[in-house]
Amino acid sequence: MMASLKITRHIVRQYGILLLPVLLLFTSASMAAVSEQTGGSAVPNPGTDLWRAVREGPTPNVGTSQVQSVGSTTLIAESGEKWRTLRRQYMIPWGGWLLAGMLGLIVVFHLVRKAPERFDESSEQWIQRFPGYDRILHWFMAGTFIFLALTGLVLLLGRFLLLPVFGPEAFGAIASACKEGHNLFGPLFMLALVLFLLRFASRNWFTRGDLSWFARGGGMFSGKHPSAGFFNAGEKLLFWSLAFAGAVLCVSGLILLFPQFGQSRELMQTLMLLHALAALGIVAFTFGHIYLATIGVPGSLNAMNTGRVDADWARAHHDRWHRECEEQGLIEKQQS
Predict the structure, then answer these.
(1) Rounded Cα gap, residues 110 and 291, in angstroms
(2) Is the dihedral of CA 236, 242, 298, 124 positive or negative?
(3) pLDDT tens, 55-112?
(4) Angle, nearest 10°, between helix axes 233-257 and 265-291?
């Protein structure tokens, strides 16, 4: 009995932080679903019946306006209600479940997988993997991405997760700050993405050996890593997923941020959903990247912190790259 309690305490102490975001996201998704089932806000809008009558009345829903812009003569955009329903009934709850499910899978995988091999610089040799510019660019990209992800999730899920906790006034201030910050940091992410693609695209083209890497699951279950070059197939997949999703986010974000381009309201509604879908997909993908770069593959984080990796680590995870470095005399003695 005592042994069982010790094991339970060990699991809670070691993985409790990983389980907390899972619980929070599950809560947000559940609240979103319940809110939709109960009709959303508990405070009725006194103008609902009036505007419903205007929209459904015999008078055409088109008038005249001195404002010359797309859709300026439409009194009520009926597509807005369809967009709202799609966003609230499908996008928000399923997006919450997607992120919670990804975190849950990572926790389960970590608990049941074979313990990864550790390299505590035992070989006394190291290889320079990323120079200073690469590391600065990576953390610049990571910083802007994380900020945009957090502010975007607040705007998407905050009404169901934060509003009941902080109340309307505090949540209104939080949401407003997140909206302004999201808009301001968006162009910085665009710059980081372009520089990132220019810097690393040439090393991320898929090769014939990558199929074998995927077929063997990257060695995550067997403990023996398939052959790989400077980047393995999983890292390449993440890179091109980020490139594609990032392009969608940047293009849709520009159109949403600058409505004076002449786009219609319907186009902006569609792009807002597409923007959220791309963001949710890449955030879920990034959860796996963060896990593997930290506790999932010990020694990986050294590459972006110090720029160098243990030679034994390089041989185990990127054997073809290690062989190239060996042939070029790039393996050096470990600094004290």
Answers:
(1) 9
(2) positive
(3) 666 555 666 666 666 666 666 767 777 888 888 888 888 998 999 999 999 999 888 8
(4) 150
Number of other residues whose CB lies within 10 A of the CB of residue 175: 18
Which tokens go with 112? 């049941």
Kindly report the pTM of this predicted structure. 0.79
β-pair partners for 126:
310, 332
State the residue for tokens 């300026």: 72
State how far the alpha carbon of 182 is from the alpha carbons of 73, 128, 150, 151, in Å.
31, 35, 9, 6
Of 24, 17, 22, the closest CA to residue 160 belongs to 24
Write b or e for each residue in 121-152: b if 16 or more Cβ atoms lie within 10 A of its Cβ, otherwise e: bebeebbebbeeebbebbebbbebbebbbebb
Using alpha carbons, select from 138, 235, 275 the residue that is nearest to residue 193.
138
Residue 230's Cβ-count burial label (10 Å; 0-12, 13-18, 19+) is middle
Distance CA 209, CA 227 (A): 7
CA-to-CA distance for 22 and 104, rounded, in angstroms?
A: 6
- Name the amino acid, one letter, at 41: S
Cα–Cα distance measured from residue 121 to residue 117, given in angstroms and rounded to the nearest whole number = 12
Instruction: Report pLDDT digits (tens) over 6-41.
Output: 444 444 444 444 544 554 555 555 445 444 444 444
Which ranges of 113-232 does DSSP label H, i.e. alpha helix? 132-161, 163-200, 209-215
